[in-house]
Write a structure and sequence with these properties.
- By secondary structure, this protein is α+β, with helices and mostly antiparallel strands.
- The protein has helices at about 55-65, 105-110, 125-140, 160-175, and strands spanning about 1-5, 10, 25, 30-35, 40-45, 45-50, 65, 70-75, 85-90, 90-100, 120-125, 145-150, 155-160, 180-190, 195-205, 215, 220-225, 230-235, 240-245, 250, 255-260, 265-270, 275-280, 290-295, 300.
- The strands form 7 sheets. The protein has a 5-stranded mixed beta sheet. A 5-stranded antiparallel beta sheet has the order 19-18-17-16-20. It has a 5-stranded mixed barrel with strand order 21-22-23-25-24.
- It is elongated.
């Protein structure tokens, strides 16, 4: 048992409760930035999801207060809708105000404004291609800030130039056609003096897409790839060929039919006349099998 140096009371430790020196709490201002649109919070330079304001304050408070034993988040009596942080350190309690600021995150700012980093120029595309583009933009969280109609398609103002270039390459790989990527100077960063650029991606869809059947010269071909040239399978010989893209190529429609004969020669039923008609196929369909075929000059080509 000892005595308090301050008042002389008997104490277990050096100072009694009344005379013990006040604990010093080191703390930075607790400022929580929350996006009013998506409700994400800014924490360590990253916008992340938080369940409620209390969770956001708790995460920020842990980085602002040093050497604490524990703390509680309580509603503020002075500010409506505000919060205070009650901090315990070495037996002492401290009440720190927590400021909540509403600030749009970069993603929501781009979505609601006119910001864009590039233009996707789409020409000669079909509904399947449009659906693919819509799905890509949604999954990659890419925003479209503007749309301009043209004679052969439309232009989209895209928020991310890197994902824009990726989309252009994916369109060419999946549907064929051509992609041209170009940059143009947009502005200069005042702090770094670096030039900033916007990207234009021109995608020109093909007249023929993968899976189409077309007539070229005297052959009937199944399209397997479309770039500057067309990769296709000759449905009569079964061989792969490379064809030039020329205006007089003709699209051959497909019909559903049934195999009526497999020996000595392959035949299918004409869906218009119900007669058995000669057919070509690189595979060996079974008798009675339902197939798709292209019809040209009285002959069917099974795909």
């Amino acid at each position: 048992m000892g005595f308090c140096p301050g008042c002389g009371k008997r104490t277990v430790k050096d100072f009694c409760k009344d005379c013990r020196p006040r604990t010093v709490l080191e703390a930075k201002p607790i400022v929580v930035k929350i996006c009013p649109t998506c409700k994400k919070m800014l924490h360590k330079n990253t916008w992340s999801i938080c369940k409620n304001p209390e969770e956001a304050i708790s995460r920020i408070a842990k980085t602002c207060i040093k050497g604490y034993n524990g703390f509680n988040i309580i509603p503020s009596e002075d500010k409506k809708g505000g919060f205070d942080v009650e901090v315990e350190k070495d037996g002492d309690l401290f009440l720190l105000p927590a400021e909540i600021r509403k600030e749009q995150c970069p993603a929501c700012s781009k979505r609601s404004g006119s910001y864009f980093e590039g233009v996707l120029q789409l020409r000669n595309i079909d509904n399947e291609t449009i659906s693919f583009i819509d799905k890509f933009l949604m999954e990659e969280r890419v925003f479209v800030s503007g749309r301009t109609e043209t004679k052969q398609g439309f232009d989209l103002q895209i928020s991310d130039q890197h994902k824009l270039q990726n989309l252009g390459q994916q369109l060419a790989r999946r549907f064929g056609g051509t992609v041209k990527i170009s940059e143009r100077q947009f502005s200069q960063d005042r702090q770094t003096s670096k030039q900033t650029y916007r990207v234009n991606v021109l995608y020109d869809g093909p007249r023929f897409k993968i899976g189409d059947v077309m007539r070229y010269e005297r052959g009937i071909f199944l399209v397997t790839q479309v770039r500057k040239e067309i990769s296709a399978i000759n449905l009569k010989t079964g061989k792969k060929e490379t064809l030039p893209v020329i205006p007089d190529m003709e699209l051959v429609p497909l019909v559903k039919t049934t195999v009526t004969k497999v020996y000595p020669a392959l035949e299918v039923m004409d869906p218009d006349t119900y007669q058995s008609i000669p057919a070509y196929s690189s595979a060996r369909p079974a008798l009675g099998e339902k197939v798709k075929a292209a019809r040209s000059d009285g002959v069917f080509y099974i795909i």
